Amino acid sequence: MKEVTFLDSRPIGIFDSGVGGLTIASEVMKALPNETIIYFGDTARVPYGGKSRETITKYSVQMADFLISHNVKAIVAACNTVCANSLGALLDKFDVPIIDVLNPGVLSCLSATKNNIVGVIGTESTIKSNAYENALKAANPEIEVYSKACPLFVPLAEEGWTSNSVANITADIYLQELIDKEIDSLLLGCTHYPLLIDCITHAAKGITIINSAVSVTGCLKEFLTENGMLSDNENAPGHTFYVSDDTVKFKRTCKSVFKKDFASIQVDIDKYL
User: Fold this and answer.
1) How far is the C-alpha of 139 from the C-alpha of 36, rounded, in Å?
2) Extended strands (E) in 82-223
3) Is 235 exposed, middle or buried (0-12, 13-18, 19+ CB in 10 A)?
């Protein structure tokens, strides 16, 4: 086995439009317990799904710039809407390695499907971009992809309504169209959606659910390992959570995802780029 060299104790940066990226932060904490995380959630401007590509790019550049100001060694763009619309702009502008959520999810979906009929759900902007459909078909021209925008899922997740009757009915209505197409795999094209996993799983009985939070964490770990960028900090790392609006929703979701409280620090994100 190749010996791993520990070279980089700088933190990992993770950003998202709101609370959805906390699902990725949780997976990173489990898979890379020696790493320190700096998280930014744009809680003042969520949701991104109905915004223009120009606005999404502006916001994503601001968030990346904020994280870079904290000397992060890599950034996870934990927002599918950003990755579908603005990943190229981020890669062109910044030298820091940026791990996206789109491509790891695509690879997991390709591995999971048995009948080559898959569904993708996401925000209106993500679905409109055709980013997932194009990536899936580029890898497998025979695959059938049925996409569905689910704009109510993000506000439900932000509100904490993740498994009540409203969430269940919404999931049933959204997903029936895809179920009727006989999909065998469903790719969650938004990091908020794993917060609604109970109602999504209930509505899509017998269908494999692809949670990109797990996939992107694997890619991040592989990247850091191969490039000698893992931390050897054996003490419990201190994670820091920043938000553009210090909301009760963020605190509630932190408690739900991590099973413990994390304080958040409000910053003026407009000061960045």
Assistant:
1) 34
2) 98-100, 117-122, 144-149, 185-188, 208-211
3) exposed
Express the helix, strand and coil content of the chain in percent, nearest 5 each: 45, 15, 35
149-208 confidence digits (pLDDT tens): 999 999 999 888 998 999 999 999 999 999 999 999 999 999 999 999 999 999 999 999
- 19 SS3 class: coil
Q: Which two tokens stand for residue 79?
A: 């927002």
- Cα 105 to Cα 209: distance, rounded to the nearest angstrom: 11
pTM of the model: 0.89
Q: Which domains does the chain have, with CATH numbers?
A: 12-100+214-271 (3.40.50.1860), 103-212 (3.40.50.1860)
Q: What is the 3-state secondary structure (H, E, C) of 100-140?
A: ECHHHHHHHHHHHCCCCEEEEEECHHHHHHCHHHHHHHHHC
Does the active-site annotation cover 254?
no
- Structure tokens that stand for 213 in this block: 């939070």
Q: How many CB atoms lie within 10 A of CB 142?
A: 6
Does residue 233 register a pLDDT over 90?
Answer: no
| Block residue for tokens 């997740």 | 157
**Residue 219 designated active-site:** no
Could you count the other beta carbons within 10 Å of the beta carbon of residue 17?
Answer: 31
Query: Of 150, 190, 199, 254, which residue is the catalytic one?
Result: 190
H helix and E strand count, the chain: 11, 10
Phi, psi of 226 (to 5 degrees): -65, -25
Q: How far apart are CA 137 and CA 223, in angstroms?
A: 25
Quick: pLDDT tens for 91-127.
999 999 999 999 999 999 999 999 999 999 999 999 9
